[in-house]
Amino acid sequence: MDPVAAAVLGSWTLDLRAVCLLFAVALLYLRGWLRLRIEMPHKFTARRPAAFLAGLLAIFVALESPLDTFGGLLLQAHMVQHLLLIMVAPPLLLLGQPVLPLLRGLPRWIFKDALGPFLGSGGLRRIGRALVHPIVSWSALATSIVVWHLPRFYELGLRSQAWHQAEHACFFWSALLFWWPVVGVWPSHPVWQTWAMIPYLVLADLVNTGLSAALTFSDHVLYPSYQLAPRLWGISALDDQTTAGAIMWVPGSIVFLVPAVILGMRVLESVRSRPAQRAAASQVSVTRILAKPQWDLLRVPILGSILRRRHFRRWIQGAMLLLALGVAVDGFHGPQVAAMNLAGVLPWTHWRGLTVIALLMAGNLFCMACPFTLPRDLLRKFAPPRYRWPAQMRSKWIAVGLLAAYLWAYEAFAFWDSPRETAWIIVGYFTAALVVDSVFKGASFCKYVCPIGQFHFVHSLISPLQVKIRKPAACESCRTHDCIRGNEQHRGCELQLFQPKKMGNFDCTFCLDCVQACPQENIGILRTLPGESLSGDHRGSGIGQLSRRPDVAALSLILVFGAFVNAAGMTEPAMMWMHRLHARLGMSSMLPVTSIVYAAGLLIIPAALAAGCGWISLRAAPANTGWKDLTCSFALALVPVGFGMWLAHFSNHLVAGWSSVVPVAERFFTRIAPDSYPRTWMPGWLPSLEALFLDLGLLLTLYTAWRVARRVSNSDQAALAVVSPWVVLASALWAAGLWVVFQPMQMRGTMLMR
Amino acid sequence: MTITNLLFPAILALSQATAVADGGTVLFRDETGRLAVTVFASPSPLSAGPVDISLLLQNQNGLEPVLDAEVSLLLRAESSGVEIRAHATREQARNKLLYAAPVTLESGKWLVEAAVLRNGERAEARGVIDVAPTPEMAMSYLSYIAFPLSMTAGFVFRERLIRRKLKGRA
Q1: Does A738 touch chain B (CB under 8 A)?
Q2: Check: complex ipTM more than 0.85
């Protein structure tokens, strides 16, 4: 192929965000269409997704192909791009009848809870009907096309990327409105008769023709940018403009006039039944269509049967045990450079990132695969424990202290930079789990001691999946309670969670013992609303009322503030500030400075802020509300914004250092040092992704806090007063997180990129 | 007075009227040897921070794009004298007809010198570009702030719709 042609054809943009967005919309549509196809096969035939996907493809070609790349050099390329956005993509998308499939494709809680009030609002429906009224929609497109083709505004789009995107958005959305009454999008009612669409389209073509003629027959270049841009292949700016005008004229007219002809033929054939059919079909209640069976991960083909296998958990625990042993061995005997050692790479880069992603996408998969309990299970076959965990210590306070100590020690002793210390942590963990659970019954180590477990218990309250009963009625007749007591074949829940009264994921290790033990197979891994149990006040089996537990509140606060302190500690400004403080204090070691900062950041400041916000809320709350309960409830509400920060932080390390494990593993298995180690990779989209995680965390925190406030208040005004200090606190944390995301960071455990 | 000095006013005059092509804004155009060199920069408008400098090389006869040259850039800040050297390649460009190099520039005027080596022949092009200061920090954070604000506003509106509906039923 000619090198120039190859270069032109190879000039694609491929913006990851745009591609992901188009892909997500396509998946959403297909999900909804697959459901509607079963209920209304005559309406949602295979042509619908074909048209919709073709429309998405047209958008992709318009925005990502060489048309966009060369749009600034050649007006004709720019014109083809605009035609795709105005005359190809919108009618194709609407021919896919997208309203119901897109709504149906959304998760139920988004459609019913989040969007339901908007869809049911009479006022918004009137606005929607007004927007797609033929007069309004025709005027929108005509205005958009004319105004943006005026030289002043066209130049604006050429000089600024932001205005260029605004221009494309105007074209696309006004074109969607324009084509809406032409296609007849269900379930909206047609306002005009079909024949009226003929002059509608013809008049639009007249506007198009007028503009095209101005471009084609002008004797000077209308857009100075093209006059100044370098000319390619000898095409002059004026010839380019003439060609662009012709492209706008001829294909543009075809796109307007062909549907006019088709509609004219339909009118002549007197398709009178269509309006009646539309009216009848539109009587179908949209909400009625939405009833669907409960989704259960344990019933997904192949994956569900693997998860249900009796020894599945043993297999993955065994695999993780081998991995932990390999990490520990390399930590003790391998090179003591974090970036070259499994103990420096796997735990601090990959494992942390993957576990938070697993929490976001599924649930507490780390505890499901935890290797630390495998040796104790083996020991218990020969020497079962004899004692129950002391009643006075049945709280999270030990875990709170250990977690604070761990976060401090991580920074103070730079665990991330010491493979040997990391290996000792792993050995220590196995030892602690073995010692505690060899003495005490049940999963005492997991429930009362393990800091990593507490991290996962708290954050799994945001996870979308939960182990819970499928049909409550099936449990009503059960007298054996195998899910918690176990039976001869299988043990019950070692964390004392009685399934019919279980609330959320707190203290659930996803061990699936209850699934194996239940004789009625009434327990599954079902979908749940993320964060639902954060705002409730129900009493849960084995955990009580989370909103009345100060130990859980303390745990939540340490995890939330720990997220921001831990991430900020890696930024250059924070490190420089700590070094200045160290110099001012005149100490020989950084340990006191780190200790002061972490004591303040993890303990003093969170306690003071929570107490202060609780006191302010109390002044607005009803008289019978206690400060302790109020503060504990709102402390839980902060968990999502903290999780957003953990997610941003750990995903940063995971993405930046994802390939670092390859040469390290190669060295570990072959005992030959690799030629080189990969550099840190920092793609441009990573800060945006991290900011998105923070944004989502903040939004869930604000929503949860509002629900708590409404629960304790008698009115919206009172709730607003109660929630206000917590909104300020959450927003301040979010702003701090946003600042951290955009700071230069110490890339721990990886080779710095040059 | 050299030819280059004579060309400078023309170059400056050309650079005043900006145009945008992929590669970003046209900074200046120069004709040197058998080549026509057009220099672009993005983002547009040009501001301090990470910047992509791109060049389009064309034969002066027929204006066919030249794809087999080696291009190196030297950028010198007028105020501080800081120099940045970069190798511009087609692989780094979105538009594969261009040669691009990512650089980080501070605000102010920069002298840009492009050296083109092709078939043993060397050609040079020069121009001056003006880099604006970086936008206010709040502006760069705007999109990240706008998302939660707009979602919160939508939630408040949703709550009002629910309250209104409940009042209507009552």
Answers
A1: yes
A2: no
